[in-house]
Amino acid sequence: MTAFLLRGACCAAVLALAACTTPSASAPAAAPATTVAPQTMVAAIRAASGDGDGELAVQPLRDPMVEDLRERAVALEGQGDVAGAAAALDQALEIVHDDPALLQERAELAILQGEFARAAELAERAHAIGSQVGPLCRRHWITLEQVLLASGDATGATAARTQADGCRVAGPQRY
Fold first, then answer.
1. Residue 141's pLDDT is what?
2. Does 23 map to a domain?
3. Which end of the chain offers a freer environment for a tag, N or C, measured as fewer CB atoms within 10 Å?
4. Residue 52: inside a domain, yes or no?
């Protein structure tokens, strides 16, 4: 329980610091800490989930209609239709608006669309209502890391990476 509270306090501190660093109209915008293409950013986010071997991962039951929309989004993204994929996930979110995996997938599409603030908002919301451990937890934090790097906040990105590393929890021993 103490680790959970500590992680929550760290999360709040990172978000508070990020909110405090909004540039004023007279201050020059921070240079991006990365010039990585959005496709590369999303690949890094998805790779962060790892193979899940021996790790605790929560998998909810899915509504068949939502699952069809998710599969459609994957197919559309594979065809290069990111806007169509985003629309499919938006439709799925109208059905199940508090699904952390859907929110995370939509955050990744927001990055591909160059909507970094929306990506951060979706990832933060997904993390707040989802599991605080496991592959999906890492994807939330790596999304925030990538957004913070793109905005020039290397310190915040490092803090997000540290939080992502804390999401790895071994599964229960099976006898």
1. 96
2. no
3. C
4. yes
Q: What angle do CA 119, 109, 157 make, to 5 degrees?
A: 40
Neighbours of 151 (CB within 10 A): 23
Q: How far apart are CA 164 and CA 143, in angstroms?
A: 10
Q: What is the pLDDT of residues 126-153, one digit of tens each?
A: 999 998 888 999 999 999 999 999 999 9
Burial of 13 (0-12, 13-18, 19+ CB in 10 A): exposed
Q: Summarize pLDDT for 97-128 with one digit per residue, the tens.
A: 999 999 999 999 999 999 999 999 999 999 99
Residue 171, H or E segment = none
- In a domain, residue 51? The reply is yes
- Could you list the residue range(s) of the whole structural domain that residue 108 is in? 37-165
Do residues 134 and 58 lie in contact, with contact meaning Cβ atoms separated by under 8 Å? yes
CATH of the domain at 107: 1.25.40.10
Tokens of 65: 């209609």
State how many domains the chain has: 1
> Longest C-alpha distance within the chain, in Å?
63
Q: Which amino acid is at 47?
A: A
Token output for 21 = 């660093």
